[in-house]
Amino acid sequence: MSQKSGFLQRLLKVLKGNDGSKTSCDMAGLHLELSERDEEIVRLKKEYALQREQSREQVERAGREAVEGIVYEFAAPLSTLSAMQARQTEKGGLNPADLLQVVSSFRKILEKRGLEQIGSVGDEMPYDPVLHQMLDGSCPPPGEAVSIRFAGFRFNDRIIAKAQAGIARHSSGKEDVDNVD
């Protein structure tokens, strides 16, 4: 800031004009200083553009490496799945337990990367409109028990699929008393 005010003060002196020889010398110095500042601005703009490009490239590279890591981990279960598919086409008789084991491998890989399951089929949990979607069209108050029919998922704290639920069916003593008549 003081450098800027010093420049402005010198410019005012030149504009007021003291004597001719000193004024032209001062004007030349001011032109030189302005030229140097312009060059510095151009240099800084180029440096900023280069850093922005390098940052963009680093983000892209990190994204590619993350995807490549997942693909690398998926290779073995995909190979197993391919062999199971060929065997099913050739001979039939696919064992559902084997298929579920492959699916479990995929799930474990994704869980290591941040995938979280919201509820399990058959679980009862308090209704939360952020986490649950009601299948029967009802709209229970938050906190009321709902029964999970399809699990939901979140990835890195972001909901990617809500758990699908219905009103929980409790067997209470009142129902049993009503059935006694």
Give the SSE layout.
Layout: H1 2-16, H2 20-91, H3 96-112, E1 115-118, E2 124-126, E3 132-134, E4 145-150, E5 152-155, E6 158-161, E7 163-167, H4 173-180
Parallel strand pairs: 3-7
Antiparallel strand pairs: 1-5, 2-4, 4-7, 5-6
Helix pairs in contact: 1-2, 2-3
Question: Would you give an account of this structure?
Answer:
This protein folds into 2 domains: 1-113, no CATH class; 115-181, Roll (Nucleotide Exchange Factor Grpe, Chain A, domain 2), CATH 2.30.22. It has 4 helices and 7 strands; from the N terminus they run αααβββββββα. The protein has helices at 2-16, 20-91, 96-112, 173-180; strands at 115-118, 124-126, 132-134, 145-150, 152-155, 158-161, 163-167. The chain starts with a helix and ends with a helix.
